[in-house]
Amino acid sequence: MKKILLVGNPNVGKSVLFSKITGINVACSNYPGTTVEYTSGPSIMGAEVVEVIDVPGSYSLDPTSKAEEVAVEMLAEGDVAINVVDATNLERNLYLTLQLLEKDIPVIVALNIWDETKHRGIEIDVEKLSEVLGVPVIPTNARSGFGLVRLVHSISRARNPEMPVLSAQERWPRIGEIIASVQRIHHHHHTFLERLEDASIHPTAGFFVAAAVLLVSFGLVRLIAEGLIRYVMDPFFNSVYLPLLSAVNEALVPGSLVHDILIGKLIHGEIDFIQSFGLLTTGLYVPLGMVLPYVVSFYFLLGLLEDIGYLPRLAILLDGFMHRIGLHGYAVIPALLGLGCNVPALLATRILDSKRERFIVATMISIGVPCVSLQAMIVGLLGPYGLRYVALVYFILFLVWLALGFILKFSTRGVLPALLTDIPPYRPPYMKTLLIKFRMRTLGFLREALPVVIIGVAAINLLYALGVLHSLVRITSPVVTRLLGLPPEAVLAIVVGFLRKDIGVGMLAPLNMTIKQLVIGSTTLAMFFPCVATFVVLFKELGTLDTVKSISIMILTALAVGGLLNLIL
Amino acid sequence: MPVALDRMARGSRGRIVEVLGGRGVALKLSAQGIVPGATFVKTSELRGGPVVLRVGGTQVAVGRGLARHVLVEVITA
Predict the structure, then answer these.
(1) In terms of DSSP bridges, do strands A48-54 and A39-45 run parallel, antiparallel, or are they unpaired?
(2) Which residues from chain A sit within 8 angstroms of residue B36, using beta carbons?
(3) Could you tell me the CA-to-CA distances from A468 to A237, A462, A524 in Å, in that order?
(4) Min CA distance, B30 vs chain A (Å)?
(5) A32 phi and psi angles, rounded to 5 deg
(6) How would you class A381 by CB atoms within 10 Å of its CB: exposed for 0-12, middle for 13-18, buried for 19 or more?
(7) In sequence order, what DSSP letters do the residues of A414-455 get, joined into one string?
(8) Helix H segments across B1-77?
(9) Shortest alpha-carbon distance between residue A171 and chain B (Å)
(10) Residues linked to residue A41 through DSSP beta bridges, in sequence order
């Protein structure tokens, strides 16, 4: 099968183009490095089936980073390269184009984001550009689909012009000549977006913008999620689902194994969605009624921030601060993703250059960044006692996150590579790709969470009925009661936290704990051990030795912090 | 007199004179348009953080440690 490579700088729309050509949905965001692993998929071009490969974005073909090494390796295997170029940023993009033309592969150029050139007063002579480069150049707009048919039809005309090999020093002057002959920029007034771009990286105004963006985002996440719970989920569960469930409850023999597994315990003779802990009660209510609303609202807001292009600016603003904890600014992006789910957050650590940095960030995320499922449950459980307790848990986790950064910075060896990144322009979010990404992430949550929750709840009930868990409670009770000050049964919550953190926190509910115990319990649970999905990814990303190290740090930190809280609270 | 990029005033125009450090550093900067001879505007600088340049039509953030290795001359118009 013929292999067609999509090659280009980071953040030029390769992934959108890829989804349009192959019909496969992949995540796209407005910041460099969304595609950290290559994606490939089949497409039909003319009468033949070809394989289209979305190569990770790179600025050059000099192997100075992992992404670039991958790109160079893949070039050797491809039959045709579609060089995706950002038309609003031709000068920058031509560096890679010229290098590509020096290689032994036929090339065709897709001049993407073509419609934006008009707003920005950029005029490009496409025919002239094609003539200078010696390959076909097709203006495209991957989002709207403009030019894609023409692009696909023109692939057979891709050529290898055998350009002379230039040195890095010679390449930029050559690009200057090309730009002078094909591009004219008309003066245009600064748009509102451009003024906002300047403000958001201004040494003082930038921090106000950041505070405003984060406050508004968190406010909206809460507003949307609580609205969904109050007006959609709770009415559904209470008025539609509960009557059905009550009928099932009455049909089953109380105290029988089937009743215990499906319905769980009755609280004051009634079904309690949080405490009953049956498959059809807690097993469905926690993931769907309590967590899903937060998943939906978090991913909607995150997608919006990603597509507008705010995240790289936040990374730049925080770079100075992050250096003090041994990281550079880009490490905030995986941390932010981790507030949704730790799994994609760990995958996103690949945008960081060094192994040491990845180890630090991955460990810090697993300990100090609670995923949205965990957060939803903490809000649900502690919220009724007052929001200050919820805030306390966040504050403790944040302090631990910081302290861990300092400690890991001084206890691991290695140099921190300096930040170097281009800053994408703000772009208005494009609803279609935004919704595709949103749907992928939400469905991803359901696919991943529901089976684990259901299997977990069933397994716990079964083990409980068999008496296995009682011995576990007995063995661990000294640590749990003396060190952490929790009731012995809290160990079950911590164990279940290994399957899913949300269910783990939910298991703290029926233990009649004081608010102090709830704070200690949920903080310890958040830090103690990654959930099983996170564990698998951690293992894949870090390897055996570093995973063992990372997990030991987690367990020690959780016990130390939990014990300390028990003393001072 | 060339100065290091982080010593230059915010808002001023300059031209890259030399990139100190190894070949890897030079290549990385080169891919971002930061090569001897290139003109740029220093648009922002975060306290203790990166320097932001407008070069070749794009904004580029250069970490402080890296900025110290880039020697520039200020262009006074």
Answers:
(1) antiparallel
(2) 169
(3) 32, 9, 23
(4) 7
(5) -65, 140
(6) buried
(7) -PPPPPEEEEPPP----HHHHHHHHHHHHHHHHHHHHHHHHH
(8) 23-31, 64-67
(9) 9
(10) A52
- Chain B residues whose CB is inside 8 A of the A419 CB are 50, 61-63, 66
Q: Which residues of chain A are at the B interface, by a Cβ-Cβ cutoff of 8 Å?
A: 59-60, 62, 64-65, 88-92, 95-96, 168-169, 171-173, 197-198, 201-203, 206, 312, 316-321, 323, 328-329, 416, 418-423
Tell how strand A80-86 and strand A2-8 pair up.
Answer: parallel
**In chain A, what is the greatest distance between 2 CA atoms, to the nearest angstrom?**
85
**A507 contacts A380 by C-beta, under 8 angstroms:** no
Q: What 3-state class would DSSP assign to B19?
A: strand
Q: How far is B44 from chain A (nearest CA, A)?
A: 6
Q: What CA–CA distance (Å, rounded) separates B44 from B53?
A: 7
Look at the alpha carbons of A467, A469, A471, A474 in this order and tell me if their dihedral is positive or negative: negative
pLDDT, tens digit only, all 569 positions of chain A: 889 999 999 888 888 898 888 876 666 565 555 555 667 778 877 777 888 988 888 888 987 776 677 788 888 889 999 999 999 999 999 999 999 999 999 999 999 999 989 888 899 999 999 999 999 999 999 988 999 999 999 999 999 998 888 887 789 999 999 999 999 988 777 778 888 999 999 999 999 999 999 999 999 999 999 999 999 999 999 999 999 999 999 999 988 889 988 999 898 889 999 888 899 999 999 999 999 999 999 999 998 998 899 999 999 999 999 988 888 888 898 999 899 989 888 888 877 777 888 899 999 999 999 999 999 999 999 999 999 999 999 999 999 999 999 899 888 877 777 888 889 888 888 887 788 889 988 998 898 888 888 888 888 888 888 888 888 889 988 889 999 999 998 998 988 888 889 889 988 988 989 999 999 999 999 998 888 889 988 988 899 999 999 999 999 999 999 999 999 98
Say if CB A486 and CB A517 are below 8 A apart: yes
Closest CA to A55 of A101, A6, A107, A3: A6
Contact B27 A169 (CB under 8 A): no
How many CB atoms are closer than 10 A to CB A207?
A: 15
Distance CA A454, CA A278 (A): 9
3-state secondary structure A31-82: CCCCCCCCEEEEEEECCEEEEEEECCCCCCCCCCCHHHHHHHHHHCCCCEEE
Closest residue in A to B28 (Cα–Cα):
A64
In angstroms and rounded to an integer, the radius of gyration of the C-alpha atoms of chain A is 27
Q: Is A111 helix (H, G, I), strand (E, B) or coil?
A: strand
Contact A371, A341 (CB under 8 A): yes
Chain B: give the shortest CA distance to residue A143, in Å: 22
Question: In degrees to the nearest 10, what's the CA dihedral of A137, A139, A142, A143?
Answer: 170
Going by C-alpha positions, the residue among A101, A109, A108 that lies closest to residue A162 is A101
ipTM above 0.90, yes or no: yes
Q: What residues contact A523, with CB distance under 8 A and at least 6 apart?
A: A393, A396, A397, A561, A562, A565
Size of interface A-B (CB pairs under 8 A): 120
A329's tokens:
């600014």
Q: Which residues of A touch B52 (CB under 8 A)?
A: 201, 316, 423
Contact A89 B63 (CB under 8 A): no
